[in-house]
Amino acid sequence: MQAVITYFQQHYALKSLGEITWAHAVNSQARLRETLHNPQVMFLETDISRAHDGEIITAHPPARTSDLRFAELLNAVAQSRQGLKLDFKDPQVLVPCLNMLRESGLHQPVLLNADVLQGNLAGPARIEATSFLALCHELYPQGLLSIGWTTSGNPTATYTSAHIEEMVALCQRHAVQQATFPIRGMHAPASWSHVPRLLTSDNYTLTIWGQIDTATQAWLHQHTDPQVTCYDCFDEQGRPLRIA
Predict the structure, then answer these.
(1) SS3 content of the chain, % helix, strand, coil (to 5)
(2) CA-based, 20 to 30 A from 92: which of 80, 86, 99, 237?
(3) Which CA distances in Å does 128 have to 27, 71, 144, 204, 239?
(4) What ranges in the chain are assigned the alpha helix state H?
(5) Are 207 and 178 in contact (CB under 8 A)?
(6) 94-104 and 70-77 are packed helices; what angle lies between their axes, rounded to 10 degrees?
(7) Is residue 151 part of a domain?
(8) Is residue 148 part of a domain?
(9) CB contact burial 147-159 (16+ within 10 A = b; e otherwise)
């Protein structure tokens, strides 16, 4: 993620990853208008899915409709200085989206995110890990990998040692040079004895994501390192978290 720091240092007085500000779920024209060019937002996070007619749109399953198409999102972001985090929800959108990214000529950082391993949510990941890594490397190698696990909204769920070791092995097997690992905020405190094991390389970081309560926010301030952690998370009022 050093490339992210370097990029944002050109435009903001940024000292750590933790100072990066995020807009979560930019999945509509209204949300895009609210966040695009907003000086308080450095990264736009959006969910990439397919509509019923096959059109590539920004929507979080089970939604299959949106007034913001992927192509429109790319065109809009190309006019900004903001980074883009794409959370791929459907394996069939990967190739066309990565091709469109390559052709877009975006100059800002782009995070390529997918749940590629089964976590604490029953059932396998919809996007297969090996295929995802290969396609990203082949079609948009300048993208920054963000690879994680399927998770549930159960606040008592955790990332187990087995989950973490499977990810470490995956990165070793495929010689992943740089990546950030998304950790759901509500699960971070109970999983923290295992999570730092992911940082086996200086080019690996963490991204804490999702809605968090006041207690978790205080815990993150105390236990996480903003030099190696992004905070794509927000409180009950929707306010983003920033840790210097």
Answers:
(1) 35, 25, 45
(2) 80
(3) 24, 24, 17, 21, 33
(4) 2-9, 29-35, 70-77, 94-104, 129-139, 161-173, 188-191, 214-223
(5) no
(6) 30
(7) yes
(8) yes
(9) bbbbbeeeeebbb
Q: Which CATH number characterizes residue 87's domain?
A: 3.20.20.190
Q: How many domains, in total, are found in the chain?
A: 1
Q: Write out the DSSP string of 165-227.
A: HHHHHHHHHTT--SEEEEEEGGGHHHHTTTGGGG--STTEEEEEEEE--HHHHHHHHHH--TT
Amino acid type, 79: Q
Query: Which residues are 88's β-sheet partners?
Result: 48
Dig out the tokens for 17 from the structure.
Answer: 């990853």
Facing residues of 206 across strands? 181, 229
Could you tell me which of 26, 90, 29, 85 has the C-alpha nearest to residue 54?
90
Amino acid at 150: T
Helix (H/G/I), strand (E/B), else coil: 132:
helix
Q: Residue 238: which region, alpha, beta or left (left: phi > 0; alpha: psi -120 to 50)?
A: left
Is 240 among the domain residues? no
pLDDT digits (tens, 9 = 90+) for 3-44: 888 888 887 778 899 999 999 999 999 999 999 999 999 999
- Asked, for residue 79, whether it belongs to a domain, the answer is yes
Q: Higher confidence at residue 244 or residue 38?
A: 38
CA distance 221 to 233: 13
For the record, the structure tokens of 185 come out as 């905020």
Range of the domain at 230: 2-234
Give the pLDDT band (50/70/90) at residue 2. Answer: confident
